[in-house]
């Protein structure tokens, strides 16, 4: 491992381009724990947390356990193996620093500020939940709903937040929690699509929330200025001025560091607590005559009973009142949002959040009930409204009447005081009014400060994951706490913009809905992870229930519509658009989300349910097993196979590694992920499978028998034509033909593709990879020799030159090929990409000579349904008897109509039986001449000896027995040349060779002469089970 210039961590033993496995070069040292535990030295390691760290551990090291192959092969290699105990961080962090790995006991930055559960979570959540609602709107809510329904409003809000808190606790304790709060929890649970969409709107919501809270503070300040006749410009502009100054001060506190921000929060908490206590104290202070005229009395049972029932006015209802109160409860993520700054987020977030919900819920209930027991709904504020005589008490102010005050005039005109009419009743009730104003300041500023810190932290975590590449600029952190200074500046700009021009009354419900959408997804994340039943879902926090989490998610969605239906729809629309964007972009991340787990569970479930259903001809679809070698080796074969299966059928691209298993396995394991990754990147919907065997035929036989799962098994073998069969050697030909026999034995449909230019481009791929590897090595050496980014002189410059010379020499060894070879390679590459392109207007000629169950007709029909082949039409060629041409044509036309397969032309070939030309026969004779035994001219003993010596050769007897079939293949080639030379693709029924009767070389000659000098040709033979039906 090396650290290159710029501070970037680079794993020098890992080539990311070629996806090769890491090769660790450090020497192994004996660990005393291993020796003392077992009494002897062993490569095995004792269980240790270091083995389970991510590559980007903050400790800078993760332990490397020996691989199974290293343990298994160690004695075969005479013990010559080295396994490092640790490996340095490979720097997977986005900002050129090691990624956080908070399970480490060793902190990276000793000076970094880390908070415990009280300062980090409890205080923040309480300050965020205790908002201006407590002092300004709570009395009005209980005036409208009465304390009976008022308690329901608070409890319902607490139910939603508590369920969310429980779900969040479960997710937090299911592994290490890093920075990013709600975004981190949702993205690691549901994947980047949900996380990326909610992360962006959650960060934006927090940024705009800063403006909302600051404007609330500024409005209170401007009210005081107005009362003291100290307005600077006018009310609106004064709010803007005070708001901007406040945001600048809050930004200064935030940028100064988390320690300063935490101290400011404690000061604000003290002020807020004093203000709350001040309300309780005020309810016990004997009410003066002035207070009584405002509707404020000491605790009275008749007031308490009168305020029990709801009294909704001015079009208000339970849901509208609930919608006004609920945003006050949306501060439960304040602690989770700074998860990266917590000492132990797994313990702190559950404990602090749930306790904050309990304390704030009780506070809201306590203050509301105290006010409900001491303040009447309406009061005139007139001291002269005292009842002097004995008059009957009736109407809406019975309790005040019984206490000696006549507020009956409030039934006729609106009074200025009382729970229903004045938002400042808390100030009047309290023991010392200015403290309530201070509490209001504290509530707004603490919430603004929490949002100002939360937005950049969440946004930074989102940008670090590089889900939105355009936003990666904001991922960089500064200082010992990795502070997102750029994020702070962006949040500041958004806040100021909304303070200056934003209509906050309109945007407030949207922000509340953004927060609720986050809560809904946290609940759904917990439900989804539990539902998937992944073994990796093991939260340490056990007090949760998956169905309760689902209920919480549904409640959040309902509350979104209760608060504001159009804001809810807008939130869903934005989230869906962002979800689609991230899904289309497909960020290269894998967090082991529950979405993956549920997909796997669904796949297994569907595969099992499919196994219980018998196959039906109507549902037949080709499931291709393509012998392509590596995924990149035969692109034309793979592309055509993919055209047959597309997204609707199974396609497995297979490779057989031939040779000793110990040697082949290493290459096989290295290529598995590499090939599957290439298929995914090139959007080929196929699987890669490989086996290691002593022979190619054995490997293919294993694939034919064992590939697939349940009903999702291949039913069609697709293979390329062996062009070099005449020079490949007997064993190779026997293996190739043996594979075709095996396919027939296992009742596979068989498809053989021949292209004149060939199919195999593996030599070109290897050359390309070699050049890339050489270029990468040169880059690595350049970086090593010039650690100062090209500014070094003298020795370093000389070393760089020599490294270039070395690499130039290495590349020149496999330099450019001769012009003739280069031209052949160019033609081969062009042909290989033929089926990737849209096919020009033309025909697919189908020579359906033998009824094989319909596969030879179904496959070309499937091609015509694909986008790339839509301009191609089918032409059908069939064999017919002389004199019956029209009748045979009508019969085939009728059959195709019943199959609902359209074709432009049906051609009946009635001269197939005619002998081929002498020139064509001569080509065949020249083709098979080296493989003929010519035993006919020998005596019986010599002939028998020759057969035993060369059992694979074509005998005169065999040629005589199969003369008609041999002539048929030659004649068919003549007809194909005559009728289908200009076709885009030719499909011909494949001839079958009887086992033990037709020699391998004669069969190869049939296939060769049949498809020689033609456009791309497919030989197809179904398994003689119907794949077409005309029944509904």
Brief synopsis:
By secondary structure, this protein is of the alpha/beta class. It is 53% helix and 7% strand.
Spans where pLDDT lies below 50 across 5 or more residues = 1-33, 77-81, 86-109, 789-814
Describe the global form: elongated
| Strand segment count | 14
Query: How much helicity do the residues have?
Result: 40-55%
Please outline the major beta sheet: 10 strands, mixed
Number of discrete helical segments:
34
Distance, first to last CA: 65 Å
Mean model confidence by pLDDT: 80
Question: Strands across the major sheet, in which order?
Answer: 7-6-5-8-9-14-13-10-11-12
Strand percentage lies at 5-15%
Q: What structural class do helix, strand and pairing data support?
A: alpha/beta
* Alpha-carbon Rg, integer: 40 Å
Domain SLC12A transporter C-terminal: 634-1032
GO cellular component, one term: apical plasma membrane
Protein name: Solute carrier family 12 member 1
GO biological process, one term: cell volume homeostasis
């Amino acid at each position: 491992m090396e650290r290159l210039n710029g501070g970037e961590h680079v794993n020098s033993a890992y080539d990311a381009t070629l996806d090769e496995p890491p090769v660790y070069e450090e020497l192994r040292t004996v660990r005393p724990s291993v020796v003392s535990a077992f009494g002897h030295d062993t490569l095995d390691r004792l269980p240790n947390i270091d083995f389970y760290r991510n590559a980007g551990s903050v400790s800078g090291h993760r332990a490397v356990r020996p691989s199974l192959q290293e343990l298994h092969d160690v004695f075969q290699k005479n013990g010559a193996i080295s396994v490092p105990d640790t490996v340095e961080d490979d720097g997977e962090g986005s900002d050129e620093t090691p990624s956080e790995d908070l399970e480490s006991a060793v902190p990276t930055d000793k000076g970094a500020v880390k908070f415990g559960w009280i300062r980090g979570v409890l205080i923040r959540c309480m300050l965020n939940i205790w908002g201006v609602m407590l002092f300004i709107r709570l009395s009005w809510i209980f005036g409208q709903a009465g304390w009976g329904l008022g308690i329901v409003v608070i409890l319902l809000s607490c139910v939603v937040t508590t369920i969310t808190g429980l779900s969040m606790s479960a997710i937090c304790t299911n592994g290490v929690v890093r920075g990013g709060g709600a975004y981190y929890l949702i993205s690691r649970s549901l994947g980047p699509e949900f996380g990326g969409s909610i992360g962006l709107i959650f960060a934006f919501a927090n940024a705009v929330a800063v403006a909302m809270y600051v404007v609330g503070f500024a409005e209170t300040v401007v009210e005081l200025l107005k009362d003291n006749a100290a307005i600077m410009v006018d009310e609106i502009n004064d709010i803007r001025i005070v708001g901007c100054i406040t945001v600048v001060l809050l930004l200064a506190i935030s940028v100064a560091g988390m320690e300063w921000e935490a101290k400011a929060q404690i000061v604000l908490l003290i002020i807020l607590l004093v203000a709350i206590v001040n309300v309780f104290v005020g309810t016990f202070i004997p009410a003066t005559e002035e207070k009584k005229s405002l509707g404020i009395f000491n605790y009275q049972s008749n007031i308490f009973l009168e305020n029990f029932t709801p009294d909704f006015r001015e079009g208000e209802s339970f849901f509208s009142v609930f919608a006004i109160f609920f945003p006050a409860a949306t501060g439960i993520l304040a602690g989770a949002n700074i998860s990266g700054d917590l000492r132990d987020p797994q313990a702190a977030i559950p404990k602090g959040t749930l306790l904050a919900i309990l304390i704030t819920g009780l506070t809201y209930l306590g203050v509301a009930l105290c006010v409900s027991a001491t303040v009447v709904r309406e009061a005139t504020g007139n001291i002269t409204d005292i009842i002097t005589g004995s008059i009957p008490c009736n109407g809406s102010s019975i309790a005040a009447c019984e206490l000696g005050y006549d507020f009956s005039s409030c039934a006729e005109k609106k009074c200025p005081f009382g729970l229903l009419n004045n938002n400042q009743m808390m100030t009047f009730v309290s023991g010392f009014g200015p403290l309530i104003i201070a509490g209001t300041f504290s509530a707004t500023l603490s919430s603004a400060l929490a949002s100002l810190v939360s937005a950049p932290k969440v946004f930074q975590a989102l940008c670090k994951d590089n889900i939105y590449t355009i936003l990666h600029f904001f991922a960089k952190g500064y200082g010992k706490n990795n502070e997102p200074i750029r994020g702070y500046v962006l949040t500041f700009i958004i806040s100021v913009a909304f303070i200056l021009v934003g209509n906050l009354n309109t945007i407030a419900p949207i922000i509340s809905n953004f927060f609720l959408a986050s809560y809904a997804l946290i609940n759904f994340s917990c439900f989804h992870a539990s539902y998937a039943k992944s073994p990796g879902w093991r939260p340490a926090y056990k007090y949760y229930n998956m169905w309760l989490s689902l209920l919480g998610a549904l409640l959040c969605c309902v509350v979104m519509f209760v608060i504001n239906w159009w804001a809810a729809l807008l939130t869903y629309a934005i989230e869906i658009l962002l979800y689609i964007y991230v899904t289309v972009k497909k960020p290269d991340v894998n967090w082991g989300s529950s979405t993956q787990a549920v997909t796997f569970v669904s796949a297994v479930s569907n595969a099992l349910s499919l196994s219980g259903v018998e196959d039906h001809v109507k549902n037949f679809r080709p499931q291709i097993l393509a012998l392509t070698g590596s995924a990149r080796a035969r692109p034309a074969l793979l592309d055509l196979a993919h055209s047959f299966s597309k997204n609707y059928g199974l396609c497995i691209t297979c490779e057989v590694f031939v040779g000793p298993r110990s040697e082949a396995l290493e290459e096989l394991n290295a290529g598995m992920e590499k090939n599957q990754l290439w298929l995914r990147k090139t959007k080929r919907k196929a699987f890669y499978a490989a086996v290691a065997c002593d022979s190619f035929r054995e490997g293919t036989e294993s694939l034919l028998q064992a590939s697939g799962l349940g009903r999702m098994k291949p039913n069609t073998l697709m293979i390329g034509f062996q062009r070099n069969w005449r020079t490949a050697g007997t064993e190779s030909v026997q293996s190739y033909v043996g594979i075709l026999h095996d396919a027939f034995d296992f009742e596979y449909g068989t498809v053989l593709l021949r292209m004149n230019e060939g199919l195999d481009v593996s030599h070109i791929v290897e050359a390309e990879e070699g050049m890339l590897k050489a270029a990468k090595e040169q880059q690595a050496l350049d970086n090593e020799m010039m650690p100062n980014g090209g500014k070094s002189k003298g020795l370093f410059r000389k070393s760089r030159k020599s490294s270039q010379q070395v690499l130039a020499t290495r590349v020149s060894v496999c330099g450019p090929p001769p012009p003739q070879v280069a031209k052949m390679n160019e033609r081969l590459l062009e042909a290989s990409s033929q089926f990737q392109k849209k096919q020009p207007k033309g025909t697919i000629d189908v020579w359906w000579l033998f009824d094989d169950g319909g596969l030879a007709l179904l496959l070309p029909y499937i091609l015509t349904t694909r986008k790339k082949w839509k301009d191609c039409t089918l032409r059908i060629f069939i064999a017919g008897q002389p004199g019956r041409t029209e009748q045979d044509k009508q019969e085939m036309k009728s059959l195709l109509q019943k199959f609902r397969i359209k074709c432009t032309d049906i051609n009946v070939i009635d001269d197939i039986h005619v002998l081929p030309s002498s020139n064509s026969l001569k080509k065949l004779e020249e083709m098979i001449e080296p493989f003929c035994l010519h035993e006919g001219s020998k005596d019986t003993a010599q002939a028998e000896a020759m057969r035993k010596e060369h059992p694979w050769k074509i005998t005169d007897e065999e040629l005589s027995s199969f003369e008609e079939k041999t002539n048929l293949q030659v004649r068919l080639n003549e007809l194909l040349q005559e009728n289908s030379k200009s076709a885009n693709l030719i499909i011909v029924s494949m001839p079958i060779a009887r086992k033990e009767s037709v020699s391998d070389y004669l069969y190869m000659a049939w296939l060769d002469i049949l498809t020689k000098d033609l456009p791309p040709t497919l030989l197809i033979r179904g398994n003689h089970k119907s794949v077409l039906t005309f029944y509904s």
